[in-house]
Amino acid sequence: MKKVLVTGPNGFIGSALLKVLSEEGVEVIAVVKDINENITAIESLPNIKIVYCELSEIDKLSKIVTDRDIDTCIHLAWVGSFGDARTAYDLQLKNVKYALNLVDVLPKMNIKRFVGAGTLAERDVLNYHPTDGATPNAVSIYGIAKITANYMTKAECSKLGIEHVWCLLSNTYGVGNTTNNFVNMASRLMLENKRAAFTSGEQTYDFVYVTDTVRGIYHASAFGKANTSYYIGSNQARPLKEYIKIIRDTINPDIKLYLGEIPFNGIPLSKECYDTTKLVNDTGYKPTVTFEDGILNTINWLKLQ
């Protein structure tokens, strides 16, 4: 993998991925939404060329990017990947169309491999929604859209003779993540001395430090088998309550936890869903950051915000 096109390059995961690609000597064409976007994290990286194109105009990308020696497209851009926007079905469906429009323009640029960024929420949906009597929450619309994007881009890539790789990202956390993901939410609750109420925490979870996540995306993109999906994890999946206790102990071991105060709505994923064996065997991926180290970095950063 010598030259790649990356959408969504200036976000939390995108900017971290570009650092890895730059370190590996990969030339990158970074497709940023518009000139109002913050690109300070990526603009000074070597081997990076920044171009501007809205997702709604992605079908015109071949006229903006004139390079014809790009081997891989890594598609990270997704409008509404956190917060209430995940419940907006019209917005989520637009993202599916944008992904397909991107795939359709790749042959014009001679790009032979498409790598999409999926989510573990896809497995949550497939595990729970088909169950009779299930009452899924609206946030699952995001996971359903990701499943749709995965399967439809795979079919479109097959039609166009493009290799398809899909990365299932787990709960990525770390320095620089400004969302209210679980790690940030739980950490802030305890840092602000608020009531630390959670579910019983018996369900298996996997939190992956951002540098491991992007290293996994790099390995899947460069070395992954065609038409294959890869779960990118930490190899340290464990019951959620154990993660919560580590967060508590890192902040203040005396904080009282109220486990079981919030009901859990869903069917827990099996531990096998968090298995990274395929990614490790096919690509040589190896996560390096323990949750204990990663959460210490994250909490120290959150204290400064």
Automatic annotation (TrEMBL):
Transmembrane segments: none annotated. Belongs to the NAD(P)-dependent epimerase/dehydratase family. It comes from the Bacteria. PANTHER family: DTDP-D-GLUCOSE 4,6-DEHYDRATASE-RELATED. InterPro entries: Epimerase_deHydtase, NAD(P)-bd_dom_sf. This is NAD-dependent epimerase/dehydratase domain-containing protein. Residues 4-233 form the NAD-dependent epimerase/dehydratase domain. Pfam families: Epimerase. It comes from Parabacteroides goldsteinii DSM 19448 = WAL 12034. The lineage of its organism: Bacteria, Pseudomonadati, Bacteroidota, Bacteroidia, Bacteroidales.
